[in-house]
Amino acid sequence: MNALRRHRELSRIWASDPGWRGWFTTVNHTDIGRMFLAVAVIFFFIGGILAMLIRAQLASPRSPFMGPEIYNQIFTMHGTIMMFLFAIPLFEGLAVYFLPKLLGARDLAFPRLTAFGFWCYVFGGSMLLFALLAGIAPDSGWFMYPPLSSTLGSPGINSDFWLIGITFVEISAICAAVEITVSILRYRAAGMSLSRMPIFAWYALVTSLMILTGFPPLILGSLLLELERAFGMPFFQVEHGGDSLLWQHLFWLFGHPEVYIIFLPAAGVISTILPVMARTTLLGYGWVVVGAISLGVLSFSIWVHHMFATGIPHMALAFFSAASTLVAVPMGLQIFAWLGTIWKGRPQMHLPMLWIVGFFATFVIGGLTGVMVAIVPFNWQVHDTAFVTAHLHYVLVGGFVFPMLAALYYWMPHLTGRKRFFKLGETAFWLVFIGFHGTFLLMHWVGLLGQRRRIYTYDVGSGWEVINLISSVFSFVMAIGFALILIDVIIHMVIRSRGPRNPWAAGSLEWAMPIPPPPYNFASLPEVTSRDALAKSPGLALSLAKGEGYLGTPRDGLRETLTVDTATGRPNGIVVFPKNTALPIVMAFVTGGIFLGMLIKAYWLVPLAGAGVVALSLRWVWGLGDRLDQGLQDAGRGLMLPFASETADPPGWWGSVFLLIANATFFGCLIFGYAFLWTVAPNWPPPEWAVADALWLGFALSGAVIGPLGIRWATVGLSRDRSALPGLVATLIGVGALFAGAATIPLSLPDPTRHAYDATLWVIGGYALFHAALGALMSGFLIARSAAGFLSARRLGEARIVRLWVDYSSLVTLAALAAAFAPGLLS
Amino acid sequence: MIDVLRLFGPLLMWLASFSAIYGLHAAICDQGWDRAPLVAVWGLAVALQVALLLLLSTKKFGAHSAFVRWTSLALATVGLVAVIWTLAPLAFLTACV
What we know:
The structure holds two protein chains of two kinds. By secondary structure, chain A is mainly α. Chain A is built from 25 helices and four strands. Among the domains of chain A are: 351-503; 685-826, Up-down Bundle (Four Helix Bundle (Hemerythrin (Met), subunit A)), CATH 1.20.120.80. In chain A, a hairpin with a 2-residue loop joins strand 3 (633-636) and strand 4 (639-641). By secondary structure, chain B is an all-alpha fold. Chain B has one domain (2-92). The interface between A and B is large, with 33 and 44 residues.
């Protein structure tokens, strides 16, 4: 097969549906990545317009431009959009588009999940946009502190839009994090060991793991606050044993890692682009990996530095202050690695490099003011002032937006296959750079003079007038700069000026393909022997196009790629991806019904949509796998490999492991919240403790034994070519007993509005019930799959996946019962 | 997967120690107990980090890949420094003021 015929055949197999239908049914990562990036940029401009309205309001004292009601919605939505609807989705879009190309694969691990996540993001974001246009947007600040955001301070629907809309969007982030993690660990080029991974993949891996463990606290917090608002369960009401500080803990458990979730991908971009611009390789690759991992984990120990003014004992403050200062060390390590890279290379001041230099100048200032606010006495001095606003904009704009603009100009030829025509980008850089510093450098000053955050007006004679006016003027200079960038990009896309295949002479794999990329990425999959594969083999692109890599011969119209061993990069399986389908968008739409039902208090819609989600999920997974053992397949270059569905740990198993990590974090935060209220909140102990019923406890304990044993019995039976049915029936009985046991928790406390204790145990009990029901659903599904012939000694993967979930359900049910009934028994 | 655990494990262990001591601190202040358990747990946490660092440097438990071996040892050192530095206030400050 010659290269042209291979290209045509692969294009036919991998292309999205023609016409408008293709927008809604594509599951290709290149399409979805572009769609993510485009929608995130639209949200950036909406958030930017809101920022301009804020600066217009603050330009003069006693401004009549906006009243406080509208102003509160504007600044809340500015922060919300920039953090949740722009920054995180932009990372997702970047990773979805580039990771398979950088890693030498044809798609991400779960293409339909990519599409589902994208549509959840669009629908959730649309809810918030609707609220903004209708004048009922959230107005309690982007971190939604109760009681300001509870029914006491915000009796309307405004806060509900935030709590429900953002949770819907977070599904998208969790989906993306699972598939990015699995893709990086398993979907790489042959020979790409951990030490040969592109540096961006390391950053994306750390970021994804952080999303998996950083977002659950916020999802939990949003759930609790919505339950309080909708049903009066008093998690944050002091008079009923709740505490508003619980929200701050849960929010900042998410919120501080969030800063690094935003920064780390940008650092990955810099580590990728900077060596290319400097005509060299990254200095201290290993040290940079150590820095990225350290930064990711350390960032989970500094959430309390947002709460230094809440009356926490000095020793605890000192723990978090020390941790906050420690973070500067891995950060500094990376900065010095980048400076060293410039030093050892021959830097060329192309436009991406200009933005990176802008990043250095801006982010270092933001980092240093970060160390300042990590010190408790200084923090108290500037708490809730414009100084903090200035600091966070230096970190987030300098540390994320500037590197992303470097990425835009670096990778734009890859997206379009064209080269820039006019040089508007350089002018835009200077406008944005000067405008940014003119706006925010001054904001430090006015903050030190005492201007508080989020005020909608101030008096004449405060001493802030001139500073605010200058700040506002510069903000409009910055806005003109961003508008010029948009014009530059549009001109680039419209003018048909064909560019070279590898315009920067980069060494990474994304340039070893035609640009703009075909839907299959690589005509055959590469084998790499170094970190910069393309630099080492300049003829790699041609060789791959000629089919000299793996899977170079299209087979039966299947969308195929390789999986590899995590550590060594040795190929160990062939994955067959699903075709184009409308299932993800339909599923996202029906999932939206759950959130919409809660939002408009049409609670009948919630179970209805939930049943729809279950039905669609079953449809989703039923189409996977095979009814016959296929055995080893020809992967090309003399290599024979099994299909991934015939391996012990198929992609779904890996996905389940990481989803369970996020799930366990959620449960851990729930237990933390329970312990927090118990030890810190006033009005404890509760009026009475829950009392256990021995019979039902016995049910739960026996279920926790029978369920896990049953699924093991089924797996062993399958591996010996015997029927899995007896084991699966035992599993079903076991999880049924778990369900009955878990039901005793809410039944023993009939009124969840009485006290925060009752309310918390209802949530803990509900969590256990949900997982027992999930275990039952999975067991029943597996019985049906077994009867239909989808399981065999070679095809054990599905049973191993269900085993993970049944084990987890058993553990959390036991933990929930201990949390509910141990205090009563001990007292 | 084991190599990924070797890389992330040391700092996750530090995070667990840090969280445990923060929780214990809350319990001590709530119940009015003496601060001695805090110092004891800190000592245990330091000992565990040292043990992990030593384990990762052995042939049996360390990684086969030179890159993962070096990186995991560097991260174990970071974990040890972190457990000493971030919990050092235990030695200097009053517990519940």
